[in-house]
Give the backbone structure.
Amino acid sequence: MKPLKYYFKKAYKEKFAIGQFNFSTFEQVKGIVAAAQNLKSPIILGTSEGESKFVGLQEAVALRNVLRNKTGLPIFLNLDHGKSFDYLKKAIAAGYDMVHFDGSKLPLEENIKISSQVAKYAKWRSVVVEGEVGRFGTDASRLYTEKFEIKEENLTKPEEAKQYLHMANVDVLAVSVGTFHGLDVSGASPHIRLEKLQEINAIGVPLVLHGGSGTPEEDIRKAIQSGIVKININTESRVAFSHTLRKTLEANKEEITPYKYLQDSVQAVQQVVEEKIKLFGSNNRI
Ligand code: 13P
């Protein structure tokens, strides 16, 4: 199997994006991998620190290994939004393919300092590193019933991204260009600030879009043309899983067999992931 770096280079050159789909249950993984298999797509499984603590770092790696061997697909595993070098070291030791250091709450100098240490440590172990400059406004993926306001000061400043990339030797950079973690159920959708993204893309490093849920398809397509090689999706897949499960249990009050009442939720996740794979253009790229 070709390494993750190969797929990021390919995505950057051929202008498609690889989806990172977060999970905290085996049923979500089943849906995600079934979609990737159907559409012959490389895929990244993501766990935040919280998700990885629930699943277990080693268990997440074991799942990736089994599914990689069984399907022959390029399935990768990323530790999403790691807040400390120590935790990223644990993920690397467990066998993660990639780690994301989220130093977005730190002063830029401190973010650069720790990111450089992570990059040095990870490179020796052939692990891919994602850095981050700018903030997504929220830490957790969730539903907002009131309009989510993007704060201008949280968006990535191109000159800071340049300074960061010059000093910290990361492979890909997460940028805040108008998206946020979660879904605004009041109906407002995030819009990508294309000019800002293009200015950052001129630096020449592959970029990552967080908060992919709810972003209009046209914005996503344009973002991919402007250097985005990875798009993170969590909320839409969580909604599909949880709402379907709630409905199934409501409709079958006597049902107690998990493999029966979880089937529809697996399929709901698969459907979301298939739609995203097609939108990101990563189908038939293995
Ligand atoms: P959404 O929950 O908005 O899809 O964002 C996911 C994400 O960016 C994980 O890092």
Notes: Residues 61 and 95 are 6 Å apart (CA to CA).
